[in-house]
């Protein structure tokens, strides 16, 4: 009896052709791990589609802003016009208390009888579809979300137009992906492309649109997703220029480069605003929980929220509507300290209560307004306390704007780039970066979830928070495979191998055994449960029982590529063949061997932690 049991040495690592074996067609075409690629022909198709989605999202942005203008003019001024105007200049008097209630009632009806998906600011719902819903969004949201957003905002809701546009653009991308019968990964990319281009079409901020998609929708940074989203965002920017012009949406007088002391001051602004962002986020969900305890159907909640919109809008009319003019005013330095304080307080109360009621609206503009007003207030106070330091309240407002959004959402890259793109003030990058970094740290320490993830976290969905290094995509198969291979000659019978196993002398690292020909060629794989199966007679040869074809890996494949093949082929191990001779078996890679990447990661993290610990001790 001959049952080979040998340690096979590692071979060289050059690309090889697929295996063709002595068993003929059975193993002539085997599955091998697909090499990771960047952009291929399929990527070109997705990118081309993303460009069209970007153009569509730009049109949606224009239509939504026109709808908001139409509803605003009808509700507050009694005129038929789509011109974008602020409801703050209305002359309704006490009737202003009624308008938001009517708007909330209509939105509640649309949510009840149209789609519950229109409730909220949209981004968490889109995130949930990405993480759990295979990026499938109901097509009707393409119409219901912007319409409900236009009604909510046009009747005084303190929201931004960007939230509904992002959600609608994402729904458009998802719909196109579903019509194309794409994979969930492709749909995710197209959904993110729609969201990014929607934000860009509103603000004229193509880079921050891409970063928003990466940080809140894609949760990855790869060429296959980045390139389509970039092209879509560029398309959205083209539509922004066509519809709204090329000027920055928030123009600022030129600012000077800050000194070291000023950077410390602006960092302090980021610290304070970051702490407030945690309170703001918690407040929204406290209000939402309070509405959940009301003994009436949720359909009526937006109307109740509208009562508070009207009250605060009567006290401080500037809190009504999107408030882009408020952001322009605080960044231009034209708002008084009293106006800034009232805007900060009443905009927060109006937005938190109405958003918690489940109406339709966005979060970016309100957070920018609240944070910007707070930052400008702190900046004005600093100017009085330290007149010689050169504090610029406008820069403090810009830092507060971005620090608030960073703290609430942790989309730190989006926030930083947004500040520069929408103002075209490159000198602001250092104070903004410092303020956002501090706000991010404060938020991370004080708050486990964000305003974007708290809702889906309560539903048992965990959103990724970090972009971590994937060890398995860098380790090669030859670094983890077992070279102590127990292989069986094709002529070996089941009885012979069972007898050998019964002797207890086996020293194998795997439980699925390669079957090879006399010349060493791989013929197939036989599993241990087939070997010991009493229904199979011992006279059978192992090559009669071996599974074939069986997927294989080269030594030069990565563990990620091999793992993906194992999952798709539903096998627990892969035979590893030589890169020089694709017929030659050299090793076996089992699912246990795949843990080598995690062992390396844990080992390196352990070393790093010990180094940090020793550093503190010294």
Can you characterise this structure?
There is one protein chain. With 618 residues, the protein is mainly alpha-helical. It folds into three domains: 6-32 and 471-598, CBS-domain (Roll), CATH 3.10.580.10; 41-244, Clc chloride channel (Orthogonal Bundle); 260-458, Clc chloride channel, CATH 1.10.3080.10. Helices cover 56% and strands 5% of the residues. It contains 22 helices and eight strands. The strands form three sheets. A three-stranded mixed β-sheet has the order 3-4-5. Strands 6-7-8 form a three-stranded mixed β-sheet, with no helix packed on it. A two-stranded antiparallel ribbon has the order 1-2. Helix 9 crosses helix 13 and helix 12 runs antiparallel to helix 13. The longest helix has 37 residues, at 41-77. The chain is elongated, with a radius of gyration of 31 Å. The protein starts with 5 loop residues before the first strand and ends with a helix.
Q: Sheet bearing the most strands, described?
A: 3 strands, mixed
Placed side by side, the strands forming the largest sheet appear as 3-4-5
The name CATH uses for the topology of the largest domain is Clc chloride channel
Q: What value does the Rg take, in angstroms?
A: 31 Å
Overall, the morphology is: elongated
Number of helices: 22
Report the count of strand segments. Answer: 8
Measure the end-to-end span: 64 Å
Q: Supply the helix-strand structural class.
A: mainly alpha
Order of helices and strands: EHHHHHHHHHHHHHHHHHEEHEEHHEHEEH
**% residues in beta strands:** under 5%
Number of discrete domains = 3
Low-confidence stretches: 1-29
What is the average per-residue confidence, as pLDDT, rounded to a whole number?
84
Can you tell me the CATH superfamily of the largest domain?
Clc chloride channel
CATH architecture heading of the largest domain:
Orthogonal Bundle
CATH class of the largest domain: Mainly Alpha
How helical, in percent, are the residues? 55-70%
């Amino acid at each position: 009896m001959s049952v080979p049991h040998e340690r096979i040495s590692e071979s060289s690592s050059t690309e090889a052709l697929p295996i063709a074996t002595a068993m003929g067609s059975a193993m002539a075409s085997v599955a091998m791990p697909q090499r990771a690629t960047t952009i291929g022909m399929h990527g070109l198709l997705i990118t081309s589609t993303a460009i069209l989605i970007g153009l569509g999202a730009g049109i949606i942005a224009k239509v939504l802003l026109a709808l908001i203008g139409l509803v605003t003019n009808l509700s507050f001024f009694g005129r038929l016009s789509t011109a974008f105007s602020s409801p703050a200049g209305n002359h309704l008097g006490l009737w202003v208390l009624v308008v938001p209630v009517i708007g909330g009632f209509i939105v509640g009806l649309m949510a009840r009888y149209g789609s519950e998906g229109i409730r909220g600011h949209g981004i968490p719902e889109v995130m949930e579809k990405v993480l759990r819903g295979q990026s499938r969004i109901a097509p009707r949201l393409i119409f219901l979300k912007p319409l409900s957003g236009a009604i909510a905002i046009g009747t005084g809701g303190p929201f931004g137009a960007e939230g509904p546009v992002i959600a609608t653009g994402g729904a458009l991308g998802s719909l196109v992906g579903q019509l194309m019968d794409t994979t969930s990964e492709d749909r995710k990319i197209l959904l993110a492309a729609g969201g990014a281009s929607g934000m860009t079409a509103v603000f004229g901020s193509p880079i921050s649109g891409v970063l928003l998609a990466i940080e809140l929708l894609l949760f990855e940074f790869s060429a296959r997703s980045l390139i389509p989203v970039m092209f879509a965002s560029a398309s959205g920017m083209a539509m922004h220029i066509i519809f709204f012009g090329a000027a920055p949406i928030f123009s600022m007088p030129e600012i000077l480069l800050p000194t070291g002391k000023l950077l410390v001051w602006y960092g302090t602004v980021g610290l304070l605003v970051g702490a407030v962002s945690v309170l703001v986020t918690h407040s929204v969900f406290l209000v939402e929980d309070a509405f959940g305890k009301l003994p009436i159907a949720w359909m009526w909640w937006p109307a109740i929220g509208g009562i508070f919109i009207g009250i605060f809008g009567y006290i401080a009319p500037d809190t009504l509507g999107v408030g882009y003019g408020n952001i322009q005013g605080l960044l231009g330095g034209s708002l008084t300290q009293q106006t800034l304080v009232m805007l900060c307080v009443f905009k927060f109360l109006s937005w938190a209560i109405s958003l918690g009621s489940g109406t339709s609206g966005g979060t970016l503009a309100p957070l920018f307004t609240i944070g910007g007003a707070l930052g400008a207030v702190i900046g004005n106070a600093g100017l009085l306390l330290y007149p010689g330091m050169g504090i610029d309240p406008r820069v403090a407002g810009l830092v507060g704007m971005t620090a608030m959004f960073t703290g609430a959402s942790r989309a730190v890259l989006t926030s930083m780039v947004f500040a520069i793109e929408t103002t075209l003030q490159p000198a602001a990058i250092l104070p903004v970066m410092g303020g956002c970094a501090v706000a991010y740290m404060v938020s991370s320490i004080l708050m486990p979830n964000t305003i974007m993830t708290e809702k889906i976290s309560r539903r048992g969905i965990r959103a990724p928070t970090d972009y971590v290094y994937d060890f398995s995509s860098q380790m090669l198969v030859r670094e983890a495979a077992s070279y102590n291979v127990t292989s069986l000659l094709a002529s070996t019978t089941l009885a012979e191998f069972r007898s050998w196993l019964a002797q207890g002398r086996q020293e194998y690292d795997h439980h699925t055994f390669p079957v090879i020909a006399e010349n060493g060629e791989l013929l197939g794989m036989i599993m241990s449960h087939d070997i010991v199966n009493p229904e199979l007679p011992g006279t059978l040869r192992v090559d009669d029982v071996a599974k074939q074809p069986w997927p294989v890996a080269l030594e030069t494949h990565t563990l990620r590529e091999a793992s993906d093949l194992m999952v798709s082929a539903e096998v627990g191990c892969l035979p590893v063949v030589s890169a020089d001779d694709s017929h030659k078996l050299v090793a076996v890679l089992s699912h246990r061997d795949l843990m080598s990447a995690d062992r390396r990661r844990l080992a390196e993290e352990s070393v790093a932690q010990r180094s940090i610990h020793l550093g503190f001790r010294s």
